[in-house]
Design brief:
With 341 residues, the chain is mostly helical. The protein has two domains: 39-192, Serine Threonine Protein Phosphatase 5, Tetratricopeptide repeat (Alpha Horseshoe); 194-341, no CATH class. It has 17 helices and two strands. It has helices at 2-6, 42-50, 55-66, 70-86, 89-97, 102-116, 122-139, 145-156, 161-174, 179-192, 197-210, 220-231, 239-253, 264-276, 280-290, 296-299, 306-318, and strands spanning 34-35, 293-294. A two-stranded parallel sheet has the order 1-2.
């Protein structure tokens, strides 16, 4: 596919900090497992926002921008925007106090996309959001996160391939291995060529091959495997390719400490893939590494009670039972969640 190759520029390997893995401990009790628990930096910002105070969130996002912590900046922006959807007062006060602040502009763009996404009129509403994304991109020219939002926006508006490629090139020019941008690109490919899973695997595999060993992009092929296993259409992907994607994600998971919130979503998604591939012992290992950090994705794709589903699956696996394969609620869901982008 031409677009697939166009989405694979030469990546520059950035210097990365090594993480020291640890041995998986015993699993925590069920009442100790939390869904989408924030890390120790985001937690205080959310607590303060719950009190109507924006200062901690402003300091957090400013710190990620100053230190060019783009992966953290992306995660924190998503979580703070999700909180602002239901509790907007603190953010409205922040925006009123600093309307031109790059962090306010970024949050404004993310929040606008979040609000438009679930609507049946999504494409039309998202087109009205475009100036907000442009303003966020101009807020700090180094920041790839507005470009991740732009990539999601392009998928939601069904933008053409040439326009998407321009956005992609701008995103990876700022951060060659930014996981959020890669996931956005993979999802655009999947939406553009529904059922063309081999092309999605080609993109994911090549991106992972060029990424550092501890980059979250190493989990991109497992994300492609998840999409294939939950889609149910298109030509069959060879089992060996699915196993290779899982093996790459297992290697990445092993580079992080057990019970670490940073790779929690990668480990939860990988557990789903391993269960679908009947790799029970590997799935048990990931459950032990997950510790108390369950994540909504991917379990909200198979249940309205993602935490309950995760805990039932964990109990079955860790007691030696073979669970029923977790199947998506529909093979190609027509309903849309705000977090789906």
């Amino acid at each position: 596919m031409v677009l697939t190759m166009a989405l694979l520029p030469t990546f520059i390997r950035p210097t990365r900090m090594k993480r020291i893995p640890s041995r998986p401990a015993g699993p925590p009790a069920g009442d100790e497992v939390l869904l989408d628990a924030p890390d120790d930096r985001l937690g205080p910002a959310l607590v303060a926002a719950g009190r109507g105070e924006y200062g901690a969130a402003a300091e957090l996002l400013a710190a990620t921008r100053t230190a060019a912590e783009w992966e953290n900046r992306d995660r924190y922006t998503r979580r703070l925007a999700a909180f602002a959807r239901s509790r907007p007062e603190w953010f409205e006060e922040w925006r009123g106090a600093a309307p031109g602040d790059p962090d306010v502009l970024l949050m404004t763009a993310q929040l606008a996309v979040d609000r438009a996404w679930p609507s049946p009129d999504r494409a039309e509403l998202l087109r009205e959001v475009s100036p907000l994304i442009t303003a966020a991109a101009k807020g700090d020219d180094r920041d790839p996160v507005p470009w991740r939002i732009a990539l999601d926006h392009a998928r939601g508006t069904r933008a053409g391939h040439r326009y998407f490629e321009e956005l992609w090139e701008a995103a990876v020019r700022r951060a060659p291995h930014h996981y959020g941008c890669h996931v956005a690109a993979l999802r655009y490919l999947a939406a553009s060529w529904h059922g063309s899973h081999r092309e999605c695997f080609d993109f994911a595999d090549l991106a992972a091959q060029d990424a550092p060993a501890d980059s979250l992009v190493q989990a991109l092929p497992a994300r492609a495997a998840f999409a294939y296993l939950t889609d149910g259409c298109g030509p069959e992907v060879p089992r060996g390719r699915l196993d290779a994607a899982a093996d790459r994600a297992i290697a990445l998971s092993g580079r992080f400490p057990a019970a670490d919130p940073w790779p929690a979503e990668v480990r939860n998604k990988l557990t789903y893939v391993l269960v679908r591939l009947d790799r029970w012992e590997d799935a048990r290992t990931q459950l032990r590494l997950i510790g108390p950090y369950a994540t909504s994705f991917p379990w909200d794709r198979v249940s309205d009670d993602p935490l309950g589903h995760f805990l039932r699956l964990r109990e079955e696996l860790l007691t030696g039972l073979i669970p029923a394969p977790p199947r998506p609620r529909s093979e190609y869901p027509g309903h849309v969640r705000a977090g789906d982008h």
